[in-house]
Amino acid sequence: MDIIAPIITPFRSGKVDVETFINHAKNIMKKGVDALFVAGTTGLGPALSLEERKALLEAASSVTRRVIMQVGFLNLYDVLALVKYAEKFDIEAVASVPPYYFPGLSQRQVAKYFRELCAATSLPVYLYNYPAAVGRNVDAEMAKAIGCLKGVKDTNPDLAHTLAYKRLMPEIKAYKGSDSLVMAFFAVGLDGVIVASANYIPDVLVKIRDAVLRRDVEKAKRLQFLINEILEVATPLGYNSSVYELVRIFQGYDPGEPRPPIYPLESEEREKLAKAVSRIKEALNKL
Description:
By secondary structure, this protein is α/β, with parallel strands linked by helices. The chain has a single domain (2-216), classed as TIM Barrel (Alpha-Beta Barrel), CATH 3.20.20. The chain has helices at 18-30, 50-61, 76-86, 107-120, 131-134, 140-146, 159-168, 182-187, 202-213, 217-251, 267-286, and strands spanning 2-6, 11-12, 15-16, 35-38, 67-70, 93-96, 125-129, 151-154, 173-176, 192-194. It is globular, with a radius of gyration of 18 Å. This is Dihydrodipicolinate synthase/N-acetylneuraminate lyase. Keywords: Carbohydrate metabolism, Lyase, Schiff base.
């Protein structure tokens, strides 16, 4: 069961800070992260240019071959260009959200998009299913009909929805993308999680996985509840922005900042988050 970090993209004055990205990747992998999911939602992928994504792919590949590169754009030619570029590196897979913004696309057109990706590369192609963000759900039946997908990151709160991918396509990798239910995802036998908390508490996720494997339900539950308390504080402040501050709090270094329209937390918000999390941090350290 893999712990995969949808790694943040550090910015300085609006520009990608590749050195900080590499240092952050090395740190979280040393502390238990198994693979990197690059340019996803937590990594602000939709806000990145093609050249910026290429730079992040190269940087991630210098740290580990276990990279899943999110290649989705609204422009298919940019998608294909990034897919071709990814073939220069010995990475694990490419992933893509389905085409978004345009609600009038038929299921046939969405399926054709993924088949074109599969035809364009020898790398495994994963579906990144995130209905709340893209306004379109590619469920297990549709994913199976596409016929060439090798994995899925399913970001929605419905566990049964994700299990359906494994039921209909037992050969694929199935990952869940929700911090609030990590314990359950390990317990039901998914291939792992791709969760933002891997950026700031990777060691805690390792403890949850180990507790589940030992059938120590009580410890896994205590750890999960503490993560959920962090989410209750961070989410109203803007979770994407809060992740950067949580890295500072838990990992003790400056991970840069997000880029607008994902604005950094203001000073009062940072203080509120730090104060609320201090007790949780102490409790986590005791477990």
